[in-house]
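A common beginner's mistake is to predict each chain separately and then try to dock the pieces by hand. The better habit, illustrated here, is to supply every component at once so that their relative placement is modeled jointly.
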Amino acid sequence: MSRRKPQWASAAVLVVLALVLWGYIVGPMVSTFLQSLGGNGGGLAEYLSFFDFKNGTQGESMLGSIVISFLSVITSGITGAFLAVLLRRWDFPFRRVCQVLVLVPIALPPLMGVQAFVLLYGIGGTFPQLLAELFHTKRAAFALDGFSGVLLVHTLTMYPYFYLTVAAALEQADDSLEEAAYSLGASRFQTWTRVLLPMLTPAMVAGALLTFMSSMSSYTAPLLFHVDKVMTQQIVIAKLNGQMGLASVVSVTLGIISIIFLVLLRRYEQRTRYATQSKGGARKRRRVSSPLWKAVIFVVASVSTIFLILPIVMIFILAFSVNGSWRTSALPSRYTTQNFAGLFQNVQFFDAIRNSLEMSAIAVVGAILVGLAAAYVITRKRFRGKTAIDIAMMLPWALPGTVVAINLITAFATPSVFAFGRVLVGTFAIVPLAYFVRFTPLVFRSTTASLSQLDESIEEAARSLGATWWYTFRIVVLPLLYRGIVGGALLVFVNGIGEFVASILLYTPQYRPLSIAINDELYYANYGSAAALGVIQVLLVLAVVIAMRHIEGDSITALGERGNAIPR
Amino acid sequence: MTELKLEALTKTFPRSGKVVDAIDLQIRQSEFFTLLGPSGCGKSTTLRMIAGFEEPSSGRILFDGVDVTNDPPNRRDIGFVFQNYALFPHLSVFRNVAFGLQVRKIPAAETGERVSAALKEVQLNGLESARVDQLSGGQQQRVALARALVIRPRMLLLDEPLSNLDAKLREETRAALRALHNTTRVTTIYVTHDQAEAMAMSDRIAVLHKGRIHQLGTPEEIYERPATRFVADFIGRNNVVEATVGPASQGSAVLRFENGRELSIRPEQKAPGLELIEGASVSVCIRAESLRLTDSAGLFSGTVRDVEYSGSMRSCTVETDAGELEIEVPSLMARPASGQAVTLTVDSAAIHVVASV
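With all components supplied together, the output reads:
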């Protein structure tokens, strides 16, 4: 409530905010759209080719993206819901350990994580080789490639969307509901179908929308499993062929699809979840009495947990392997600690780490300033165009990283007012700018959440006691928002350190971020060095998880719900 | 102490329209004044405009004759106690209370003294270093009060401060607030929807409905001589019965009820400004406690439908020839039973006539 004198101040903040949103988010989208009409390979006719599913590459790739996304929703949904029920409703030995480990895939770095899947299950990978050795066959009985590989990666990285939401819903649904159903004469089966499953529906729908969005945006998995008939790959292929017009056409189409899903998701989130009115009371877990059942549940739970954390284990094993020591065995044959020493000795690696830290730090500063200002005006002010600002803030969260990169290229390949009259493409600045654009919604979201929980009367109390707006903001509001801001900022940082999708389109060789260094090592099959860099990313994520545990209560859940919600 | 004047104060919200509609009001120095009304009547919005949290759409607010309409809240020197207390969750009890003094750059020594005194006044001394979320609801309420009073405000504004307390604590705090007002003599504006609370504490009450003041007066005036049908319904357990005006002269009149019975009233037994014209229909307010059971011929006759026993009193719902009536009889006097046929009489001096809506 700052009126009268500070009116011009909030007006100024609004103007700056509108300029930033236009300059770096909405404007670049418009320039991509213009490029799609006039650029090389573009034109209105190209848009129509999306509806030719049989012969045109564009139609095929759109169909491919949709099919993969649809299947990913089903497999992730089954996996996530199954794990949630297994780990939250029954008690068995090591249940708590499993509960923590099952969320470890959240710490998978985008590029190296997918590569770990390739090395585990892909052609010549650990499992195919193990099977070949086991059955003494020359050729592996199976090896994942193409669609099946992409689907596996999607399933095992996106199940947390379902696991977390379903687990939360199960945790909320207190026993009295079930007991009420039983007391009213419902059988166990009826209780499930009539009460428990309907209560899980909102959680499942939200999870499905998130998974679909993430799968549509997925770039790294199709890249490493050699699937090029998806939209993200087509964008990059067209760009590498110099057909910016065509790349823009695909970007615009993919962007529109993403925005539709963002709108659907927000509509759905606004419908209230089923909140139970019970006043706590510890949940009883089903004690499994039959030893046979106990054994079955234990085995199923531990096997699936191990399966889930294998990629992370793989990264750690590889990090200690000698580069090039892995040819025809299930695992690398020679081990060393040289890869880690190399991180500090090899200037290239050291530079990459430093670049990523710098780029992420710049993005963090920008994200805090813009995210906080936007969150404050949206939750505290009444003004025209508020919804527009709200949507523009959340847009980049829905857009695939590939599309964000294309937007920035079309906007900043020529001198721009928003780059102070300079060309940004080919400079250091474009990468941190991309991180800022992609990840500011994380700060915006977490700060908005904190702010809307903070009753406005607290600010009014300070004002009535004689404090100015600025004093109130510093002494009362900021300390109370601290968790939301720092939580969001840490997420921006972690995501920046791992970012690959936009980086690959925007980086200049002079300033390689970490993911690009990993990519280059992988190109030369230097798995040891690449994995060592990947370990750095994993450790940074874990450090943030621990930091967030101090700040927020349920850190892993928070990280999962927001951090992982950035499409890879 | 400050005198407050509101001139044609109006607040219009885009969605809900005129929430406060041209209110004129003068609140005297050291008065304990209550804005009373149902939720949505505009009482809180009025209070928030006085505090400076809401900007009036039109009209003026004057403190001691000085226009403060455009002053921000931090320039008004008011103490405000919120319904949810709005304590700063990250600060200790001491720092919550000291906040207003620190903002005013009062020296640390004096701040310490004044905070201690304020906490003592609300019987919270010793809890200086406690975190506010460790306190009970009643204690939080008293911290909020101390925080508002320690700055020695020109006016104390209270927005339903008792509504989050349980019944017993509410009555204790009611007395404590009144006692505090007697010592500080700070002009106090109290907002509530609870008429019993308002009657017990206030020097004067304004009854608000749909953004307008329906009646302004002492608790006695409002209880005994409601100005409008709304006030009659809102305050106390009132029976409102329709009647027709019979022969009238010089303000006195005869009222004819629907059952044909008649009753005559004196000029002062009607709302100010109401003209009693023969043949017009009016609403007659009859307090539940002014109706009595009688053995002789009475005003209304009917059957007891329900009896509610509350210790000193029995409240009965009686289905009569003039509609359903609530009566309250001292428990020791009579024992009406459900289904019993009864005759009711009324002390004709206790009834009050308002305009029929």
